[in-house]
Amino acid sequence: MRISITIIFVGVRFNQWTMILVFKHFFYRNYVGLSFWPFIILKHNALKGDAVLINHEKIHLKQQLELLILPFYILYITEWLLRSLWHLDFYKGYQNISFEREAYYNEHDMDYPRKRNFFGFIKYL
């Protein structure tokens, strides 16, 4: 099995550099992208041109940075598990995570990562 990795450096509006990695065999089912600070990891090279997806992942990078990275992942996983138990469905649990709700709600606003309020995810709890 051959694995190819593409690294692209993209300047973002909130004055930091984002590295985009492409891993074809990394994702489960319909998932196509994720943020793992400071990287955005995509399933296909063509997704680099999807401005809405990239903006969604930039919102997650801001969330991760403001929570000092590790606490973000702890809160994300904890909220996902609790919401999955509540809905008795892992995907519904994922859809209702406050971090995801903020990112989905604002992904079409390309200025949102720049103008976003600190701890903006709280209003989506």
Query: In this structure, how is the largest beta sheet organized?
Result: 4 strands, mixed
Helix content percent band: 40-55%
Structural class: alpha+beta
Beta-strand percentage range:
15-25%
Radius of gyration: 15 Å
Mean pLDDT: 89
Distance between the termini: 42 Å
Number of strands: 4
Sheet with most strands: strand arrangement: 1-2-4-3
Low-confidence stretches: 10-15
Describe the global form. Answer: globular
Total number of distinct structural domains: 1
Query: What is the number of helical segments per DSSP (H or I, 4+ residues)?
Result: 5
**Topology pattern, helix = H, strand = E:** EEEEHHHHH
Secondary structure topology:
Blueprint: E1 6-12, E2 16-22, E3 33-36, E4 39-42, H1 51-66, H2 70-87, H3 90-95, H4 98-106, H5 112-115
Parallel strand pairs: 2-4
Antiparallel strand pairs: 1-2, 3-4
Helix pairs in contact: 1-2, 1-4
